[in-house]
Amino acid sequence: MDSRFDVELIETTKRYGATTAVDAISLRIPRASYCCLLGPSGCGKTTTLRMIAGHEAVTEGDVLIQGRNVSDLPPIERGTAMMFQSYALFPHLNCLDNVAFSLKMRGVKKAERHAKAREYLALVHMQDYAMRLPSQLSGGQQQRVALARSLITRPKVLLLDEPLSALDPFLRIKVREELKRLQRELGITFIHVTHSQDEAMAMADLMVVMEDGHIRQFGPPREVFERPVSPFIARFIGGHNVLPGANGKIAVRADRCRLGVPGGDPFVSGRVTAVEYQGTMVRVALATDPGDEASALVPDGDFYARPVEPGDPATLTWSDHDAHALMQA
Amino acid sequence: MRRPWTFYALGTLFVAYMVFLYGPMAVIYVLSFQGENGGVTFPMTGFSLVWFADVFKPGQMANVPDSFGRSMALSAIISILTTVFAVAAGLAFRRRFPGSGAVFYLAVASLVMPSLLVGFGIGLGFQLLGWKPGLFSSTLGAQLTWTLPFGLLAMFAVVNRFNRSWEEAATDLGANSWQRLRHVTLPILLPGIIGVAMGAFTLSYDEYARTTLTIGPKNTLPLEIYALISSATSPMLFAIGTLTTTLSFLIIGITVTWVLRLQRRRAAATLKAG
Q: How far does B177 lie from chain A, in Å, by closest CA?
């Protein structure tokens, strides 16, 4: 059966006793997308991933992979492969045997499965490390081997549980590019769970923001960033000020805010609480008089033309067309 | 740098402890080479190996070689049974099944039961039912009441360090539950499992209280030695001590060499690739 979607969740629910981890979420992930499940810890994103993988039984609702209901199938029959957060490489097997593991389980002969495993190690540039044990590899190298081990099953959907969290910041950006490149080349869907909005915005075609077992907003990252629907989203994806407006709360991007004087534009006054130099920009944090926290990202030139210090009174202004109303939540 | 007085105080305490621990054993090893006409105390009247030769001669009072053989056979069976059950139970207890707490406490309760009472109860039970007590029936059972809970507790420590996601990864890669056990769970747990087997073996090998009350007509080595001590004393007892210690160190040495060779083979595989 063919379908325009690689993964569909239909009212998918996970309950543990009385607590509901994932509450009737519905989601469609188009063919060959890079989808990021984003949210604070405990929001249900990992549980959702594990339900798609088949490592967690669905309490109610369904999981479809390319139009086929896989809710009751074991992982291997779903056409998914999962890369675990700690990579879960088998410590007693060398890289080659780790990658060849799934072929061995299917009874593929040794020479054949080793040849295939070498191919996949080469795909992630790890062919020179075939005989190493996982404990003899760095975190980044372990991740590549884990990736090869997942991809050798030729999955329709690759599931990645916080794949970058164990890496140092420089490596993280490199691996980000590489995952994206692999996804494009293989033409399959990647679902990537993360709690970092930077990561999600940098990588996702489809960004799904979760909170409390619900999907709060989804769409292309730019759409989510330009139009966060609720104060939660605006605060979670960062770079926004959530301020009281004429009809409920509004969101304004911090980089569209200026430090100025009360005038024709909307404004709020307060006091500077912190100044952070960030290179091209300077972030000025304020406590507003109505009691909100806000910040302005000011270009460094502008800032040093009229510098402020913590404790100084300041007025935050913005243009009306940069503000947009938020759903109350 | 000057060391504080506590260093010397604690150092002295430690040395005293080591002397207390190993001193008597050293005396036994030395005295086992007592001269032919010597006794069980110093002075040495010479140097000889006659007491070792004595050990291997079936005597009137005791037959050391035969009882040693029986002890080894019994301990080997105990070790295998304990390992099989402890591994299975250790893996099962990872899941909090209903009543798991009660089952666990029932299983380990026999660790705190007075050993003489357990042995006595089993012996009495056999008598009551008209069964003949024997090495591989009543003694085997009595020793298992001691080694099984020990094995289970040891397995808990082993299983605790096991990362569940290894098993999930195996399932994800298409292993069925048997393949998962065979190719992932057991190989990763193997060093711990060897430890449990060795532990059960030694517990069984020098068990006395439970064994003495459930034994049939044929003794294990500890019972035989005890019979020797209470009847006749000669440096031959010391020779037995020296021999069993040597044997223990041999077994430990072989096991360690085995594990090291396993590691080295993996390292060698690495070098070839490097």
A: 11
